[in-house]
Amino acid sequence: MTYRKYLWEKIVEFQQDQSLINYPINLYELCKQNEWQLITYDQNSPLVDISNDGFSVYRDNEYYIFYNASIHENRIRFTLAHEIGHIVLNHHVEFNCEIILDNSVGSYIEDEANIFARNLLIPNQLVSEIEYKSVKILASYFKVSEVAMATRLNTLQIDNRFLKYDKTKPLEYCYNDFHTIFECYQMAFNRMHGVRY
Ligand SMILES: [Zn+2]
């Protein structure tokens, strides 16, 4: 399936405009800065019937993200990133929906939000730099599920093909923690495989 050029442009624009440099990304802070209101519910709430994970609402020019706070933190993070995707990609306005429910508009809208989410949580450029890609270690670093991490690794090429960054505005990631963890990991891996320094 071919996604709209708009999707890729919006992902790049958002990453650059928001100066997203610290990972794992703080989604609560990101919502606060953009004045997207977060509203939690739990497993006993009737809102679970709308979605077990979460959903977003656009009303009176304000965005609200509702999410089930009783599910695993990593899953919550993906839900928030997915709903942020619907907001940034302008789905509510474009499709004239106060609330976007799974498959209410079309599955490609859900796919777009998922593609946005994986690039928001785990930027391609960061992961592409690592030689030995361990799903487990990367998942724990970026605070995502191992399933989400595996999907991220399987989609590096497709995303790299479409994401076009403005070279005059380079993304400057906060590499400190990231490099320390991965240099240790890489050295341990090399030692295990008999690589001498
Ligand atoms: Zn959705």
What does this structure look like?
With 197 residues, the protein is mainly alpha-helical. It has a single domain (5-192), classed as Arc Repressor Mutant, subunit A, CATH 1.10.10.2910. The protein is built from ten helices and three strands; from the N terminus they run H-H-E-E-E-H-H-H-H-H-H-H-H. A three-stranded mixed β-sheet has the order 1-3-2, with helices on one face. Strand 2 and strand 3 (62-68) form a beta hairpin. Helix 1 (5-17) runs parallel beside helix 5, helix 3 crosses helix 5 and helix 7 (135-142) crosses helix 8. The model has no long low-confidence stretch (mean pLDDT 85). Bound molecules: zinc ion. Zinc ion binds next to helix 3 and helix 5. The site of zinc ion (ZN) has 6 residues, from helix 3 and helix 5.
In whole angstroms, how far apart are the ends?
46 Å
What's the SSE pattern? HHEEEHHHHHHHH
> Sheet with the most strands?
3 strands, mixed
Residue stretches low in confidence (pLDDT < 50, at least 5 long) are: none
Mean pLDDT: 85
Number of helices: 10
CATH architecture classification name: Orthogonal Bundle
**Globular, elongated, flat, extended or rod-shaped: what is the shape?**
globular
Q: Are any ligands bound, and if so which?
A: zinc ion
Strand proportion: 5-15%
